[in-house]
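Sequence design from tokenized structure. All designs in this work follow the same two-part layout: the structure record, then the generated sequence. An example of the structure record is given first.
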């Protein structure tokens, strides 16, 4: 099994088919390379790219130009998430088809959301590089998972 919850070392000793309980409040918010955007990774499968995360965005914090390579799902817990197509408010859900591309930002009060990605987003850098949320080369890191 390649799925893990980073920062929860006690999971390593569990049998392969055991449930993995995560005390989310004990996970630290991790800064991303985007100012005002933090994440708690709840599930990451490096082999397939499956990623579930809590995202917290400060008011107006921006996720620049990116593509949802496969379907992305977001449930807004607090505040809102905004893009050129509209605003998703607390208690609402938005999903985006594979191949959709946009920028997104935290609403006027910021936002906290549960985000589920079939594979991590591909960010388009001004210099032409394609990266993931951490700044790693997207194709090197996730390209192999795209076809699994």
């Amino acid at each position: 099994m390649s799925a893990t919850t980073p920062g929860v070392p006690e999971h390593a000793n569990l049998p392969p088919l055991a449930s993995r309980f995560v005390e989310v409040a004990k996970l630290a918010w991790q800064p991303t390379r985007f100012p005002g955007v933090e994440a708690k990774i709840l599930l990451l499968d490096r082999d397939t790219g499956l990623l579930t995360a809590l995202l917290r965005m400060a008011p107006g914090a921006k996720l620049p130009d990116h593509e949802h390579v496969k379907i992305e799902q977001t449930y807004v817990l607090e505040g809102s998430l905004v893009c050129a197509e509209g605003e998703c408010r607390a208690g609402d859900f938005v999903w985006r088809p594979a191949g959709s591309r946009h920028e997104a930002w935290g609403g006027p009060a910021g936002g906290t959301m549960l985000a589920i990605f079939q594979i991590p987003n591909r960010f388009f850098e001004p210099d032409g590089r394609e990266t993931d949320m951490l700044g790693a080369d997207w194709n090197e890191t996730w390209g192999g998972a795209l076809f699994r």
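Residues 48 and 148 are 6 Å apart (CA to CA). We note this feature because it recurs in several other targets discussed in the main text.
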